[in-house]
Amino acid sequence: MESIKRSKIRNYYGGIAKGVTANAKSSCCGGSSCCGDNTENAELYDPEHIEGLPKEAINASLGCANPLVFADLKPGEKVLDLGSGGGIDVLIASGYVGVTGMVYGLDMTEEMLKLAIQNKEKSGIKNVEFIKGYIEDIPLDDETVDVITSNCVINLSESKEDAIKEAYRVLKPKGRLAIADIVQLKEVSDEIKQSIELWVGCISGALEMEEYKRILKMAGFKGIEVTPVSLYSKEMLKSVATSKKLDDIYKRLDEESLDGAFASAIVKAYK
Ligand SMILES: C[S@@+](CC[C@H](N)C(=O)[O-])C[C@H]1O[C@@H](n2cnc3c(N)ncnc32)[C@H](O)[C@@H]1O
């Protein structure tokens, strides 16, 4: 049976996918600015990389950095994006690997998959496939892909060990990980750690850097790098909480313990 946390995560991201689809259909919606609270995420990407993508793919962007900047994708490579959401990273990656390559997007949320498939169809991109499943139990054979990307998803997993072990299994020998994620940089209160809402919002499930490295090493990865790129101040977390409609939860928390406790990070490793 599905855990409460997982079903909350699914409902939350399913709701976002429906919201993006509904706003895109609305006749009032001439530009991207009225299409939900994820529009600022377009700033993660170079304009040239998102040019021509369906606006629903851009508006559904929920990542915390751009893994394609350091994934070093090459023509002909096979890529798997864990927790592909509305498909933005998958669609961009398809351009790097070209027609001889292939990009799979894996997600557990039906509404996100539907949105991603619509975005694929609208974009006309062919070398992409969206599949339903869990990152902790990847429905691909051993040694299938050259690169695994992921953007703000590992923090949501209730079993990060299983997700990382599965990533290792499906990577070809010498394959690589290029993950954008959130990490925890200092001790936080139990209230923060135990908040399902903050977990769903990508915060309380974040790993400490040393723990992230330990899990990667245990799975067999080498050349491990976990590098924070953008520290989250209390002001920034407050605005994230507002955009995720988590103000009530935020108000109850100790702001000082949140200040600087989390950061977006890039994670690199090799099989
Ligand atoms: C924060 S969103 C990020 C989406 C996308 N990577 C992006 O950058 O826009 C997290 C996504 O991961 C999916 N997800 C969360 N936990 C998952 C799991 N255990 N297995 C598969 N997908 C999961 C959610 O359905 C959601 O689409």
Provide an overview of this structure.
This protein is an alpha/beta fold and 271 residues long. 41% of the residues lie in helices and 22% in strands. It has a single domain, classed as Vaccinia Virus protein VP39 (Rossmann fold), CATH 3.40.50. Strands 1, 2, 3, 4, 5, 6, 7 and 8 form an eight-stranded mixed beta sheet that branches. Helix 1 packs parallel to helix 6 and helix 7 crosses helix 10. The radius of gyration is 18 Å and the shape is globular. About 6% of the residues have low confidence. Bound molecules: S-adenosylmethionine. S-adenosylmethionine (SAM) binds next to helix 1 and helix 5.
Provide keyphrases for this structure:
271 residues, binds S-adenosylmethionine, 13 helices, alpha/beta
Task: Summarize the model shown.
It contains 13 helices and eight strands.
Topology at a glance:
Elements: H1 4-25, H2 47-50, H3 55-59, H4 68-71, E1 78-82, H5 88-97, E2 102-107, H6 110-123, E3 128-132, E4 145-151, H7 160-170, E5 171-184, H8 190-194, H9 196-200, E6 207-208, H10 209-219, E7 222-232, H11 234-243, H12 247-252, H13 255-258, E8 262-270
Parallel strand pairs: 1-2, 1-4, 2-3, 4-5, 5-6
Antiparallel strand pairs: 5-8, 7-8
The structure holds S-adenosylmethionine.
